[in-house]
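Before a colleague's protein record goes any further, I have to sign it off. What it holds is a sequence and that sequence's fold in token form. My question to you is simply how this chain folds and whether the tokens agree. Thanks in advance; the entry in question is below:
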Amino acid sequence: MIDTIRQQWTSGAVVYNAWLTIPSPWSAELLATAGFPSLTIDLQHGLIDDPTALQILHTIDQRRCPVFVRLAWNEPAAIMRALDRGAAGIIAPLINGPDDARALVAACRFPPEGIRSYGPVRVGVAHGVAEPAAVARLPVLMPMIETANAMEQLEAIAEVPGIDGLYVGPADLSLSLGLPVPVDFSAPSFRAALSRIVAVCRQRGLATGIYANPDLAADLAALGFNFITIVNDGDLIMKGAVAALQTVRA
């Protein structure tokens, strides 16, 4: 499944993503059934805990839809648990420099390349591989770029061997650059930061991801982003409920 996404990036296609914050396999299954080519479980700001994340992975495996995990922190034990449970990719928050990116990669690689403990209890069943080299090749690894420090060391982060791309956290990046939230994606300084991230990734053959919304997707794709999160499950429910009430009250 994850190789399909890598192939799409290689061909120049944009992969759209849905963000999961609700602690329910059912809402995740609905988004997969809607046709999303990828999902992301948010363990940082979402309401999903580890047992529910495992239930979501069990459910979505039947839909053949790759599921990423956005970690709460770039912490080795959490990374290894997510991978052993079958996560197709890791999005690691608050990567401030190349050392953070190298720590992410090391937690995803078995010795001698890294520090990951070998125990593919579920990933071996879910993905049909057990050899260390094959297991280590499975996940897509995406450090998040969301701080001014990361921007200062952007090239060094992008050159860390083993990462597949960079993923922009726009809210934190905007705040870190002294800009407002909600994010003004058209602000010249913010736009310049996004363009620079895209250019750095293109030069190194890396994917470029970002959290956004449907209204921004076409513009961001034209800018060069090829992994775009366009919906959040909680926002979909809230906006749908508000729209329905407005309709009947009009």
Remarks:
- Residues 188-204 form the longest helix (17 residues).
- The chain has one domain: 2-249.
